[in-house]
From TrEMBL:
InterPro entries: Haem_Oase-like_multi-hlx (IPR016084), Thiaminase-2/PQQC (IPR004305). This is Thiaminase-2/PQQC domain-containing protein. GO terms for biological process: thiamine metabolic process. CDD domains: TenA_C_Bt3146-like. It comes from the Eukaryota. Residues 88-270 form the Thiaminase-2/PQQC domain. It comes from Armillaria ostoyae. It holds the Pfam family TENA_THI-4.
Amino acid sequence: MTATSGRASTILHTLGLDSESKRGPFKLKAATLDDERPPIPLPKPKGPIEQYTLIEQLIMNNEDVWTKFLENQFCADGYKSPANEFDDKFRAMSKQDYLYLIEYARFVNFRSLQEPGAHTEDGLEDVLNNLSKNVKEVQDYFNSCINDMHINGDDLLKEKASTMMLGYSSWEQLSAMTDDAFSNYIRAVPCVYGWNKIAQKLEQEGPGQTDTLFYQYWFVQNIDPGSANKLSQFLEDNRSQYESPGSMEKWNTAFRQACLFETAFFTAAQREDWDQIDTITRN
């Protein structure tokens, strides 16, 4: 499960922020919500709200689920455990992550169709090119699983999508079809921004095992804050296009549920049981 060859690069490409993309970030008109709908109660910020980025505000508003996400046992054990104790567990998660990336390509396709450019001929060509790149991401990850992580190719092709993975990807796909594109980028924050914060937290706690699959194909890929910073800056640059009464309520809900799904994904990997429905995804 690598951020540069998997989810994060796909997200950054569709943002127009990666080195290969030739198109700029999209701009959309803010959705209008019911002005009379009461907002959910949120914690009072520790200082002027303007001093915080949108991601920082979301974290403050959802500190309980954010902390559980950062402190997940799978990453903690993966960083400290030797290869003979953890590599097989990482391979098992990587197989589910491969299937997730297939579903994520579908999600990005649905999300791209929400952008105004998709209503033009050039825009449809963009959607097609985007989908082609996402399919290549899946193919590259498949090859990495076999050649780098030494996962048996037949086993990978026979891997069944778990209840946990399908629950996460189905939620994303439904959101892509029914919500605005900006809110769907907020759903990516725990993965792109959060994985970097997990890696930084692990590094701050001391040295880990460096000759493991987890270290090479998760930790190293996520310790660089470049992707996290790009996503944060993108949200800052575009949030004014979407802000309306109730927008923060919606963004909090999207962010919170994404944190719960990411935590549940790590929990399933840790206990090696991908089909047990955990209440963590519904809290």
